[in-house]
Design brief:
Blueprint lengths: L1 H23 L10 E6 L9 E6 L5 E6 L4 E2 L3 E9 L2 E8 L1 H13 L5 E7 L5 E6 L11 E4 L5 H23 L1
Antiparallel strand pairs: 1-4, 1-7, 2-3, 5-6, 6-9, 7-8
């Protein structure tokens, strides 16, 4: 019996050691999260389902939007920062449900704005309205690309956080 107790203690000690070693290898980047909300422009509603917000810091534009977003980070498959002429864009690829919603809302609201809110950083400390592109056509591919009102570093943080949040959401959904 004493032999088994010693073996058990050795196995327990090894398990704890492995947990500590593996736990220390988690990079701070794996813990970064972000939030993305896509709202649609609408006429002011006296029932309180809309609100007016200011988008863009250098040349502010007032837009009245639905309070409830049409898409969130739960609909995202991947996000990436893409080089573009004169700067960069953020490209968001949506899942099947998000693709369907994006197509339906873009087809039903030509000439209106899609207003995009992002929040990122340690404990989601940074956040603002990032863009308000005008819907010019039906978006059927499930990909939304926009030029954000943020620095390249902020965009990289947002995209990293969105991809981490997406992994966590999809991992939780599989359980």
């Amino acid at each position: 019996m004493k032999v088994l107790a010693r073996q058990f203690n050795i196995y327990l000690a090894l398990a704890i050691l492995m947990g500590v070693v593996c736990g220390c290898q988690t990079s701070p980047q794996d813990k970064v999260d972000a939030v993305l909300r896509v709202h649609i422009e609408e006429n002011p509603d006296p029932a309180g389902t809309s609100k007016t917000i200011s988008v863009l810091r250098s040349d502010p534009v007032l837009v009245t939007i639905k309070k409830e977003p049409i898409l969130t980070e739960a609909n995202i498959v991947t996000a990436k920062v893409m080089d573009a002429t004169g700067g960069f864009d953020i490209e968001i690829k949506f899942d099947e449900n998000g693709t369907w919603l994006l197509e339906q809302y873009s087809a039903a609201n030509p000439g209106r704005h899609q207003v995009i809110f992002g929040q990122w950083g340690d404990k989601l400390a940074y956040g603002r309205w990032l863009a308000a592109p005008v819907i010019t056509r039906r978006i059927s591919g499930g990909v939304l690309a926009f030029t954000p009102d943020c620095s390249r570093e902020e965009a990289d943080q947002l995209v990293l956080g969105l991809n981490n949040a997406t992994k966590a959401i999809h991992k939780h959904m599989l359980k």
